Amino acid sequence: MKAAWFEAFGAPEEVLQTGEYTAPEPGHGEVLIRMKTSGVNPSDTKKRQGSFQNLLDGGPVIPNSDGAGVIEAVGPGVSHARIGERVWVYQAQFQRQHGTAAEYCAVESRRAVKLPEEVSFETGACLGIPVMTAHRSVFADGPVEGEVLFITGGAGRVGYYAIQWAKLAGAVVITTASNEESSHYCREAGADFVVNHKSDDMVEQVLDFTGGRKVDRVIDVEFGANLESVLDIIRVGGVIATYSSTVVPEPVLPFKRMMFMNLTIRMIIVYDMPEEAKQEAIEDIDEALRSNLLLHRIDKIYPLEDIAEANALIDRGEGYGCVIVNIED
To answer: Domain boundaries in the chain?
Structure first.
């Protein structure tokens, strides 16, 4: 089969290879998928950069956890009725070597979710890390109807979906953006109020909008960098759900202040979400897809041989929306 892989950590143009690779066989409880698309996410590119130093101990890695395709074969323990299903895939390259950036991918049957006929394979490649992370961030601590949520980086891959999940569930959403284009995407997703996080009076703008009411929950893409201002706008007993802290990777916490505010800090990592939470997300995603309730934003689509360029785009932090690799010509 044709595939992309890396055998060393480093820059995408230096370590990513494409060519012929041995196709997998589906094991017990697995399905074999002929991949149509593969989603490239920051967590995938960070692995290529060496965020898990033992990742290559088992051999070369075919990257990417998300994607979409058609089931061509099943292993023992899986119904043959699944053959021919259009599916979206999540968590393909987690604690294993072979991800979705290949013509074929064998995964646990439960990680291949039926994709409605009306939904494209390109959209299917967006549904894993971005949509499931957003779902967990919004709903991990209970219903949000009537609550005020502050979502940082609302134009980002996760933030864009978090705004939509929160609005669908009846929340008031305040979000941050750094320019007019990103503000447009936040409003498109349904945000009630957009504030520039670079503004000196950001906190005052938020509290003016709420009439002085502090927010109930924060969903944060830059925990360390945003913490000081977040503490000024979150209520006592509030929740901060965070899935990234790139600018300040090892934040120092004002423990006493946070303790006396009785805050809950929830760290979100999609791979290790409880299985019940994954299933809840899948059920809500399926309903949203069938009812056409979610907007999906695809930034760029690359052919497999240009996967290094797709990775470089993610590494530079450029663009808006999901980055997709087409597996088939």
So the answer is: 2-126+296-326, 130-271
